[in-house]
Amino acid sequence: MRRISSALFLLGLGLLIAMIFQTMEFGSVAPLVGQAINATAAEQVGAANFVTSVVLGYRGFDTLLELTILFTAATAGGLVLGKPRAGAVRDPDSGFILRAGADLFFPLLLVVGLYIILHGHLTPGGGFQGGVILAAAFFIPILARPGTSMDHRLVSIIEGLAGAGFILIGLLAMLGGGDFLTPLLDTGELGALLSAGSLPLLYIAVGLKVGSELAGLLAQLSETEASD
Amino acid sequence: MSMDTSLIFHIAAFGLILIGSAGIVLSTHLVRIIFGIALLEAGANLLLLLATYREGSSAPIIVDGQIPAVMADPVPQALVLTAIVIGVGILALALSLALRVQRAYGTLDLREIRQRLEQDIADEAGIELPSSIDAPQAVVKRQEGRA
């Protein structure tokens, strides 16, 4: 019975999608907000990457809420998984290749992650992407040596400081008479590393927060798995 | 990117949405359902990006002070960035919940989990599991054996 109703649902969904598909125009959509942003963002925000201008400049508050959602998910994950038992058996160390690779990759991933975070306003990338790479840099050594555990207290301190920094920059803009999270400082020269005002600072905060959150969550997932 | 490529990407987006939905409603294994959600998300993100795609547009980034003639819309790109991050959060939370279910019931099969859950609720309430008098003898025996 359940199979039949599921199949019927899928059939309906397929028909609906086919109907939408027929009415769509491919590749000739009239631009509305995007064109206005593309025309004015370089002067207003000063970031060469307009996606960064949108993420942190025009809808920075949304980004703050997005970070809140990620934080909530990570906290809930930690709450559901709980602490590993005291005498839990851990997986043994992995083979030579993974251990050597983890040691080699750690500095490389660290540099690439920081580069992507710092150049978020100039090239594709930014705090979220770089933060994930930073998390990978700290998680791969745990994969190689499951016996070592991550310092969860340090991770949550970094995470809290980064989140507080993001909100603090937003509040500083309010002190100057602007709205919450209005870009501060001089926009500088377009395309230079030190440009776009406070956006690089915001992206550093985002990168540290996302990196520490994901690394903590991954470490907790692996610890829990090993404790069974 | 020509018209045909755009069409292929649209078909891919709708296909991912359909495959993900099929995984969610047809599968009875929790991890497969979570993978279905991930596929559905990927399709939705691709569709969102394609919704404002224009022929011949380049990335909305100024390189060496040169402004491209036609730039892609940066708004859906920023939205998809948000959606991907939230998707990762959902995936992690769903997987940790699945881990807990596996630890509590020893299985990830939804049918078995539902049976165990109903049995647990009935035991807790001190009542017999509701069953039909027309139920096959094997089912009745199994329920009696558990109680």
Key attributes of the depicted protein:
heterodimer; A: 228 residues; mainly alpha; 8 helices; 0% strand; globular; B: 147 residues; Helix Hairpins; 2 domains; elongated
Principal-axes shape call of chain B: elongated
Largest sheet properties of chain B: none
Quaternary structure annotation: heterodimer
Extract low-pLDDT stretches of chain B. none
Structural class of chain A: mainly alpha
Instruction: Identify low-pLDDT runs of chain A.
Output: none
Cα end-to-end separation of chain A: 37 Å
Beta-strand share of residues of chain B = under 5%
Coarse morphology of chain A: globular
Greatest interface by residues involved:
A-B, 58 and 49 residues
Number of helices of chain B: 5
What's the Cα radius of gyration of chain A? 22 Å
Arithmetic mean of pLDDT of chain A:
82
Structure commentary:
The complex is a heterodimer of chains A (228) and B (147). With 228 residues, chain A is mostly helical. Chain A has 8 helices and no strands. In chain A, helix 4 (60-81) packs parallel to helix 8 (199-226), helix 6 (127-144) packs parallel to helix 8 and helix 7 runs antiparallel to helix 8. Chain A has one domain (49-81, 89-226). Chain A is globular. In chain A, 69% of the residues lie in helices and 0% in strands. Chain A starts with a helix and ends with a helix. Chain B has 147 residues and is mainly α. Chain B folds into 2 domains: 1-56 and 70-108, Orthogonal Bundle (Helix Hairpins), CATH 1.10.287.3510; 110-147, no CATH class. In chain B, helix 1 (3-26) runs antiparallel to helix 2 (30-51) and helix 2 (30-51) packs antiparallel against helix 3 (74-105). The relative contact order of chain B is 0.10. The chains are: A mainly alpha (228), B mainly alpha (147). The interface between A and B is large, with 58 and 49 residues.
